[in-house]
Amino acid sequence: MEKQPLEQLTKISSQVRRDILRMVHAVQSGHPGASLGCTEFFVALYFNQMKHDNKFNMDGANEDLFFLSNGHISPVWYAVLARSGYFSPEEMTTFRKLDSRLQGHPATEEGLPGIRIASGSLGQGLSVATGAAQAKKIDGDDRTVYVLMGDGEQQEGQVWEAAMYAAHHKVDNLIATIDFNRQQIDGPTKEVMDLKDLKAKWEAFGWEVIETKQGNDMAAVLEGLEKAKALTGKGKPVLNLLHTEMGFGVDFMVGTHKWHGIAPSDEQLANALGQLEETLGDY
Amino acid sequence: MDKTLDLKFTYTEKKDTRSGFGDGLLEAGRKNPNVVGLCADLIGSLKMGAFQKEFPERFFQVGIAEANMIGLAAGMTINGKIPFTGTFANFSTGRVYDQIRQSVAYSDKNVKICASHAGLTLGEDGATHQILEDVGMMKMLPHMTVINPCDYNQTKAATMAIAEYEGPVYLRFGRPSWPIFTPADQKFEIGKAWKMIEGKDVTIFATGHLVWEAVVAEAMLREEGISAEVINIHTIKPLDEEAILESVKKTGCAVSAEEHQLNGGLGDSIAQTLIRNNPAPLEYVGVNDSFGESGTPTELMEKYGLNAENIVKAAKAAIARK
Ligand SMILES: Cc1ncc(C[n+]2csc(CCOP(=O)(O)OP(=O)(O)O)c2C)c(N)n1
Ligand SMILES: [Mg+2]
Asked: Is the pTM of this model over 0.95?
């Protein structure tokens, strides 16, 4: 796909946020909070950074690959896949409904283009992405594997098993991003289970760590991803600590775990949509 | 449909069974200072908030780290604590199977593994979260007791009962609002099946949410002149074989009904009992070797064949095979 310029990426982000809210509202279930917080990241990846084919080949040979470990933020992924042509935006009307390809959590079972592995049970995505990255190395395929995880998700032990492995095996075609929104279901991560110094932890595990301090600013997100990309191929896996705000883009949702997994009411949806320009046409 | 049927059990209120767990845990905590709670970032979903509030020194937030939670619970039993762990049913079982197997079941520790959002009635979250294999995994473990109560009241009673029982227990409950049709003051006897409705043509053995569907099915069958016996198998292991054999001796055939895979479920356990003692026709109502999917609980129960209509069909099929 063609690389979209900054102002276009910002426009797409606004539409993606509308899509997220409208999908979650329609079935009164799903996870808007971190979907909104990760919108710039997804749009930057799919419309600017990754080399990928929206005709979708499961094996993704000679393409950059993306895996979503924190599968509950499926709404943002579905919106971005639809808007980049993997399937028709119309299909977003089926989100979380019976017989849909847009399952509550991403799945391969129904054959939705763009999805290569099921996720939803936290802590597994980094292992999968690392395996996929190593498979590319075996094949002499020099493209990059991306994976996104939650920050609460860092509490799962498997994340650290994979972290140790990827550094040990010099999986340097791998860029892992952490959605560092400092929130999880039961509250702020600091209160639930303090992550302490994540940057120091990943560095201690042998990763190259960069921080994107403004994960909801498109220019900063692009810059971070460029920097991460430049660090690949140097013997170490790369970690991008992406500082975001849960619920970004909607004033009454921003910065709180309360919107982790609940849907807006009719009035709340109208209010939220009033804050987000319809740039590509609602589905 | 419920309205026009002459049901032997009725309800005025619906509530989620997980709330029965939350309220039962609070009562158990008040009765016994050794009861402790652990939860993996799902306090609200598991309804453990009231216990946490009243007993903050006996409640532990472990974060999203289920394997650690099981190990912690096993360790806490060593000097006599009675830990209740809380997370979704898939993260309570498959996610931590070996931790449970070694540190809880094999070591015979007094841990109560309390599992919410089991089965298809979880709804929209889809198959990653809708575990349908948990009863099978848990009942295969030696020492493990497996309980799947049918409504809010029974879940509350079961939660209080397992606090007084010594040994590892898997307690399974769910998310949806469900009819409360059993009495609030019931005594919960682990391992003792409850004959809810007497009948003579066919026995319906049901567990969990499907007990309500069995009650509805009994009324539907009665309208057609078929007399069904309904037995609530809240304890899948140890199974009340005596009650099962006694009933089937009278009725001559049976149906099992559960929100679970056929492989490894309640029906399998009943089939083993019948095969060894009294090979009678048995029809299964359950999920047939498939994962679930997103949808509303009612739609899913219909699509996967787990409602009263399907129990009626199965009952007729069983009778026809007599
Ligand atoms: C193994 C596992 N345990 C528990 C859950 C339930 N759960 C879903 S999202 C979530 C919180 C995740 O926190 P974080 O990674 O920070 O994501 P955010 O809330 O920021 O979206 C939990 C506990 C799960 N999906 N998987
Ligand atoms: Mg978070």
From this structure: yes
- Tell me if chain A has a CB within 8 Å of the CB of B129: yes
- Consecutive H or E run containing A90: none
Distance CA A162, CA B4 (A): 58
Query: pLDDT tens digits for B214-260?
Result: 999 999 999 999 999 999 999 999 999 999 999 999 999 999 999 99
Among 3.90.950.20, 2.30.30.100, 3.20.20.60, 3.40.50.970, what is the CATH number of A6-273? 3.40.50.970
Domain residue ranges in chain A: 6-273
ipTM of the complex: 0.95
pLDDT of A78 reads 98
Residue A255: Cβ within 10 Å count: 17
Closest to A99 (Cα-Cα) out of B299, B313, B24: B299
Query: Tokens 């979650």 appear where?
Result: A24
Q: What's the rounded Cα separation, in Å, for the pair A28 and B296?
A: 11
Residues of chain A that touch chain B, judged by Cβ-Cβ distance less than 8 Å: 27, 29-30, 71, 96-100, 102-105, 107, 109-110, 118-123, 152-153, 155-157, 184-186, 192-193
Which residue segments constitute the domains of chain B, with CATH numbers given? 14-179 (3.40.50.970), 191-320 (3.40.50.920)
Beta-carbon count within 10 A of A73 CB: 30
CB atoms within 10 A of CB A278: 10
